[in-house]
Design goal:
Strand order of the largest sheet: 6-7-8-3-9-10
Oligomer: single chain
Structural class: alpha+beta
Number of strands: 20
Largest sheet: 6 strands, mixed
Shape: globular
CATH superfamily of the largest domain: P-loop containing nucleotide triphosphate hydrolases
Number of helices: 10
Distance between the termini: 38 Å
CATH class of the largest domain: Alpha Beta
Mean pLDDT: 88
Low-confidence stretches: 1-6
Order of helices and strands: HEEEHEEEHHHEHEHEEHHEEEEEEEEHEE
Radius of gyration: 25 Å
Length: 376
């Protein structure tokens, strides 16, 4: 994304709320999306992400606040007059039309209608973008799910929208095809250079494709940032629990310094913590939870094998083992930490053989692996 484009907002929400009766589907959303950005709304069902997308599209109108597209307030502008197009989860293709007519549909409805030669050129251009050259006469029901999704993308792109809205477009695909389409969507967005806004409940989908991710809960934005920032520096327990996997160890705050605090966990171990949730003001005696990602926990049969700076070292029993190909996920239990998960990369298990269910191992992690978050 070019620096100039990054400074120019193409979509702006200013204090936007949407009510259905007494139910607030979106509450006081303020947000700017830059031109050329790939942004995802991520959250569980009912969090307000689809409502936000539909207000950009014009399918819903805000109850309060304003929505702007390319500097124009669009609250009262109907969907068909907005410079956006949407790709739906179901693709919404016309089964009785071939690929050419599905893709050209928007141009064929224009008045005045472009010439057939202009339409042919436009269809050829977008089919080339989505790598479907030669499929013009194919019926959509004769195509795979991934190919149908590309037809839906081509149909949306042919109208040259300023913003492309994607409403869970990969949900109907199997895991392998979904991963392939994630890469294709990223590459397509870079080639066309327009703003993509994706709605998904799939964290992997959002983290792998987006420049920024907007985490939503109960109609509100709880954190927005780059995928790496959300993963490494979650603002709250909700975000740490929703983005990736985390272990949560209850603890009590001891001595507090300007940029660090001593936290004693249930095992009795006191460790220095210098990573905190958003706007946390700690005082001695406060209850917190320490969030530790499973991949930050090291397992070994010999405590001496742990790095010297491991501040937590506890004997743990292996409760379960799940082989996932590139890594193995272990569920463990210890007196001091309770139940927790650890991930062992496949490479490490080539050096030290996999641990067996019921085996006693030593688990440890460094101080920088832990982030203190509010106990609620």
């Amino acid at each position: 994304m070019a620096e100039d484009a990054a400074r120019k907002p193409i979509v702006v929400f200013r204090g936007v709320s949407k009510f259905f009766g007494e139910v607030a589907a979106a509450s006081d959303i303020s947000l700017e999306v830059a031109a050329g950005e790939f942004l995802s709304f991520l959250g569980p069902s009912g969090c307000g992400k689809t409502t936000a997308l539909r207000m950009i599209a014009g399918f819903e109108q805000p109850s309060e606040g304003d929505v702007f597209l390319d500097g124009v307030r669009v609250n009262d502008i109907p969907a068909y007059r907005r410079p956006v197009n949407m790709v739906f989860q179901s693709y919404a293709l016309f089964p009785h039309l071939n690929v050419w007519r599905n893709v050209a549909y928007g141009l064929l409805q224009r008045s005045p209608r472009p010439s057939r030669a202009d339409i042919d050129r436009s269809v050829a251009r977008v089919l080339d973008l989505v790598q479907l050259n030669g499929f013009e006469t194919r019926r959509t029901w004769e195509m795979s799910g991934g190919q149908q999704q590309r037809v839906a993308l081509a149909r949306a792109l042919i109208n040259e929208p300023k913003v492309l809205l994607l409403d869970e477009p990969l949900a109907a695909l199997d895991r392998k095809l979904r991963r392939e389409m994630q890469i294709e969507l990223q590459n397509l967005q870079r080639r066309v250079g327009i703003t993509f806004i994706l709605v998904t409940h799939d964290q992997e989908e959002a983290l792998s494709m987006s420049d920024r991710v907007c985490i939503m809960r109960q109609g509100r934005i709880v954190q927005i940032g780059k995928p790496t920032d959300l993963y490494d520096r979650p603002a709250s327990r909700y975000v740490a629990d929703f983005v990736g996997k985390s272990n949560f160890f209850p603890g009590t705050v001891g001595e507090v310094a300007a940029d660090s605090a001593q936290v004693t966990v249930a095992s009795g171990v006191s460790l220095p913590v210098n990573r905190f949730g958003e706007n946390m003001q700690l005082a001695k005696g406060d209850s917190v939870v320490l969030a530790v990602r499973p991949e930050q926990i090291l397992l070994t049969r010999s405590a001496e094998s742990l790095p010297q700076d491991s501040v937590v070292r506890v004997e743990s029993r292996v409760l379960n083992r799940i082989f996932l190909g590139e890594h193995t996920e272990y569920l463990l239990s210890s007196e001091g930490l309770g139940e927790f998960a650890a991930l062992a990369p496949r490479q490490s298990e080539l050096v030290e053989s996999p641990f067996e269910t019921g085996e006693i191992v030593t688990a440890g992690f460094r101080a920088e692996a832990a982030q203190a978050l509010a106990a609620d």
